[in-house]
């Protein structure tokens, strides 16, 4: 409910929901997470069914439109988005000026902000304009990631090909090649699984920005900033650094026990909502295993298997999606700092679906804080301090 103002006049400390744990902050019809059955649906469809039966483009359409497209709608959607992949010469120039050692997440955050400066409907926050902006971002984000990555390596950008599928395009603009079908399928699956996940930190950030009446590019720029953190999207990179640090399946258990001694976080494990298994993990694991087969290297999956078994046995903590996604991207030939930007290329769909939902029934998001600072006091003159 919209509820009454709850500003309390009492001096009794109210319940503080630190981290907003267990708080229902709003309603949403985009997705539903059911931790009791380790399941997740997008607009009513189970993610694992979408992953096995649909392309990422179909899922993007579903998240925005609420229904899966028919063949004609899908074709029109693919054409509309694929034809908008180019970025301006000005943005290419800006990207070439980025520091070569900048993290690709900072590069994509800056590029998306720049796209907001140039957007033909920059000042228009009507639903239709905001939706068109979301589709433009969906089309252009891989181009920006590819251009920034390649510039940092002294390489020329690869022009997006409008005939490519979303997955083919990502490989082409980053790696300059389109891999075989099984690799594309594994990648598409990861895009579908990463697309949406209710009120996670970055999505809630995007909704919060939207709640003040701000525009799509502002909300998405903030979402990217939030996703970068290692407790959130940044974990997929951290997972692969960890697997490489372990290096050898024979060392995995001892390495993990060393982490336990220091009470250190083990990246890719744990989840705020799921406590008995992440709905997306079995599907992603299956496709990470397929990648290991394609590449002919089982090292990372074997280390992963041992770490997951030990974490479950000793700590009763399950892996999250980032755990199988990290090695899957590595086996697909992506450099580690590109893993979280690739997550952005997917999550733009969920973020923008939430932005549109937030603005359709908006109320400024403005919680209260319980003050714990000094008592009220007089300002001493400068000379007396
Ligand atoms: N490694 C070791 N211990 C862990 C881990 C972990 N990855 N995750 C949780 N725990 C422990 C906590 O230390 C805590 O122990 P305690 O009760 O003895 O203090 C207990 O499990 C409960 O965990 P919380 O911290 O209460 O869980 P919370 O919901 O606050 O945090 C989070 C969830 C941030 C995801 C956490 O599990 C974590 O930091 N994981 C590692 C980072 C990661 O993989 N993030 C990706 C999230 S999924 C995604 O973005 C796609």
TrEMBL record:
The enzyme's main class, written as a single word, is transferase
Look up the record and name the pathway of this protein: Carbohydrate metabolism; tricarboxylic acid cycle; isocitrate from oxaloacetate: step 1/2
EC numbers for this chain: 2.3.3.16
What catalytic reaction does the record list?
A: oxaloacetate + acetyl-CoA + H2O = citrate + CoA + H(+)
Would I find Transferase among this entry's keywords?
A: yes
Q: Sorted alphabetically, which keywords does the UniProt record give?
A: Transferase
Query: Which domain of life does the protein's organism represent?
Result: Bacteria
Chain segments annotated as transmembrane: none
Q: State the family it belongs to.
A: Belongs to the citrate synthase family.
* This protein's name: citrate synthase (unknown stereospecificity)
Give the organism the record lists.
Answer: Paracraurococcus ruber
């Amino acid at each position: 409910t919209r509820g009454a103002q709850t500003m309390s006049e009492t001096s009794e400390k109210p319940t503080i929901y630190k981290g907003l744990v267990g708080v229902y902050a709003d309603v949403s019809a985009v997705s539903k997470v059911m931790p009791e059955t380790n399941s997740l649906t997008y607009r009513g469809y189970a993610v694992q069914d979408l992953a096995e039966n649909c392309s990422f483009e179909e899922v993007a359409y579903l998240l925005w439109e609420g229904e899966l497209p028919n063949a004609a709608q899908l074709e029109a959607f693919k054409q509309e988005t694929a034809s908008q992949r180019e970025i301006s010469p000005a943005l290419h120039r800006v990207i070439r000026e980025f520091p070569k050692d900048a993290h690709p997440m900072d590069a994509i955050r800056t590029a998306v902000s720049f796209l907001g400066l140039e957007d033909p409907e920059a000042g228009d926050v009507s639903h239709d304009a905001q939706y068109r902006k979301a589709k433009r971002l969906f089309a252009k984000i891989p181009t920006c990631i590819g251009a920034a990555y390649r510039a940092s390596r002294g390489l020329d950008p690869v022009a997006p090909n409008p005939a490519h599928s979303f997955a083919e395009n990502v490989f082409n603009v980053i790696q300059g090649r389109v891999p075989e079908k099984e690799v594309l399928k594994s990648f598409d699956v990861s895009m579908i699984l990463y697309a949406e996940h209710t009120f996670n930190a970055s999505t809630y950030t995007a909704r919060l920005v939207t709640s003040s009446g701000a525009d799509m590019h502002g909300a998405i720029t903030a979402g990217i900033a939030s996703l970068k953190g290692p407790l959130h999207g940044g974990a997929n990179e951290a997972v692969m650094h960890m697997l490489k640090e372990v290096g050898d399946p024979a060392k995995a258990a001892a390495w993990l026990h060393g982490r336990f001694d220091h009470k250190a976080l083990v990246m890719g494990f744990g989840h705020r909502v799921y406590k008995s298994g992440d709905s997306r993990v079995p599907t992603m694991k299956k496709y990470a295993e397929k990648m290991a087969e394609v590449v002919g290297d089982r090292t990372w999956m074997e280390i992963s298997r041992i770490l997951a078994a030990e974490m479950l046995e000793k700590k009763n903590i399950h892996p999250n999606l980032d755990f199988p996604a990290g090695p899957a991207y590595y086996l697909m030939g992506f450099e580690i700092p590109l893993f979280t930007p690739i997550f952005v290329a997917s999550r733009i769909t969920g973020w923008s679906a939430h932005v549109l939902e937030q603005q359709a029934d908006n109320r400024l998001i403005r919680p209260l804080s319980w003050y714990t600072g000094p008592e009220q006091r007089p300002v001493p003159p400068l000379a007396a301090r």
